[in-house]
Amino acid sequence: MIVGRDELRLYDYVRRRFTGESVEVVLDRRHGDRHERREGDQSAAVERRGQTDRRVHRVDDHLKAQGWVVIRRDEQTTAR
Predict the structure, then answer these.
(1) Cβ-count burial 46-61 (b if 16+ within 10 Å, e if not)
(2) Which strand (E) or helix (H) includes residue 68?
(3) What domain range includes position 20?
(4) 62 in a structural domain
(5) Assigned domain for 42 exists
(6) Alpha carbon 1 to chain centroid distance?
(7) Any bridge partners for residue 2, and if so which?
(8) What are φ and ψ of residue 67, in 5° steps?
(9) What's the Cα-to-Cα distance from 4 to each of 7, 18, 42, rounded to whole Å?
(10) Has residue 36 been placed in a domain?
């Protein structure tokens, strides 16, 4: 489970709640939008990213909308 970096109280609660469970709770450590930091033509890079990029955007959308997102470990491994 990833908790948005502005949701520290939720992060602390969920981390305590799932202590001893097979759930890893992490605080989102990313800063800014990685697409804004890039320069030059991105068309080839966008094509290569494909599904991985769409998954990242879904995670970002969920974090912005609700402050947390659950990712199954097999999805996380596949998304890399």
Answers:
(1) eeeeeeeeebeeebbe
(2) strand 68-69
(3) 2-30+48-79
(4) yes
(5) no
(6) 9
(7) 26, 69
(8) 85, 0
(9) 5, 17, 27
(10) no
Residue type (1 letter), 59: V
Reading the block at residue 22, the tokens are 């097979």
- Tell me what pLDDT residue 1 has: 94
Q: Would you say residue 18 lies in a domain?
A: yes
Q: 28-74, pLDDT tens digit by residue?
A: 988 765 544 444 555 555 555 556 667 778 888 889 999 999 988 77
Structure pTM? 0.62
- Please tell me the distance from the alpha carbon of residue 31 to that of residue 66, in angstroms, as a whole number: 18
How many domains does the structure of the chain reveal?
A: 1
**Res 25: pLDDT:** 95
